[in-house]
């Protein structure tokens, strides 16, 4: 697959300031369509210890027809990993701790998924916690609820707090060509409703995608991008403004039209949101190799979209 910005057509994008009439997060979706199903969520964190050692930590939530699962992996090659599956047979055991070693660092993973509550997605919405300690330095508590006892004991003993930064988030969907989710684009920022819809000029999905393909992207009920003749403008980018940040929005739906997957349906489309410095007018792809400050990082949010016929 060619890079996302390689086929950008500056005339393919129309920005609309018109807000959707409903106050529902899904108000940009045709009432005849149901949002696609979220199959997996992957969040990549960068842990920075007091000795400046950096360790990538990846959390992947997955769902299937019979179970939910969480995989915690360390390092770019994910050579050290712990997998927890919420299969009903072992559901009562989903509370405890795991210890492992990664490149000379002692890693402890504390978790409680026994009361995790899910809706339609792969990631639980509350009732769980996960936290990671690297060389006795604590990371953040992921999940809802109060701090677990093990975490409070470490705090009282004077344990150091490692710096954990969310670097990227990826979500995988399958179903029709409507994708609805929430995303934060900066630490402490608000959660934004993001809706992506591909269909005909009248907003239809299904056959409309083949006949009159149009891409619409809504953020907080406002249409920020509308791309017509999507079969010709299958790759492109546009910059939007959120939370005081410039956010590059890139799309690549080439596989939907020209490269069907292994099954009977189309391949996977990619939609990417990437923050960048407001002082630089260049696209992040151009500035990526020029950044020298390791303490600064942009955040990327990517949606992989598999559309069923």
From TrEMBL:
<dbReference type="InterPro" id="IPR008586">
    <property type="entry name" value="DUF868_pln"/>
</dbReference>
<protein>
    <recommendedName>
        <fullName>DUF868 family protein</fullName>
    </recommendedName>
</protein>
<dbReference type="Pfam" id="PF05910">
    <property type="entry name" value="DUF868"/>
</dbReference>
């Amino acid at each position: 697959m060619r890079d996302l910005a390689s086929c950008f057509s500056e005339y393919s994008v129309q920005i609309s300031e018109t807000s959707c009439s409903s106050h529902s997060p899904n108000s940009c979706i045709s009432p005849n369509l149901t949002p696609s199903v979220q199959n997996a969520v992957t969040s990549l964190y960068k842990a920075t210890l007091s000795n400046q050692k950096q360790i990538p930590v990846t959390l992947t939530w997955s769902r299937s027809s019979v179970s939910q699962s969480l995989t915690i992996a360390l390092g770019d090659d994910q050579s050290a990993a712990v997998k927890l599956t919420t299969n009903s047979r072992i559901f009562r055991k989903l509370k405890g701790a795991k210890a492992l070693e990664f490149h000379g660092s002692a890693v402890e993973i504390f978790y409680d998924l026994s009361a995790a509550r899910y809706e339609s997605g792969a990631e639980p919405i509350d009732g769980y916690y996960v936290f990671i300690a690297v060389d006795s330095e604590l990371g953040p508590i992921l999940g809802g609820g109060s701090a677990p006892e093990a975490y409070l004991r470490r705090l009282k003993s004077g344990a150091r707090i490692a710096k954990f930064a969310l670097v990227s988030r990826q979500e995988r969907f399958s179903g029709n060509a409507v994708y609805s989710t929430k995303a934060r684009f900066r630490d402490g920022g608000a959660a934004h409703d993001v809706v992506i819809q591909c269909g005909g000029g009248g907003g239809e999905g299904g056959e409309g995608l083949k006949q009159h393909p149009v891409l619409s992207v809504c953020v907080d009920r406002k249409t920020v991008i509308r791309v017509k003749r999507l079969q010709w403008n299958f790759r492109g980018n546009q910059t939007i403004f959120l939370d005081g940040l410039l956010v590059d929005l890139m799309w690549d739906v080439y596989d939907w039209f020209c490269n069907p997957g292994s099954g009977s349906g189309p391949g996977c489309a990619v939609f990417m949101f990437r923050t960048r410095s407001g002082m630089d007018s260049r696209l992040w792809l151009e500035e990526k190799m020029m950044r020298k400050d390791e303490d600064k990082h942009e955040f990327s949010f990517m949606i992989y979209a598999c559309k069923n016929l």
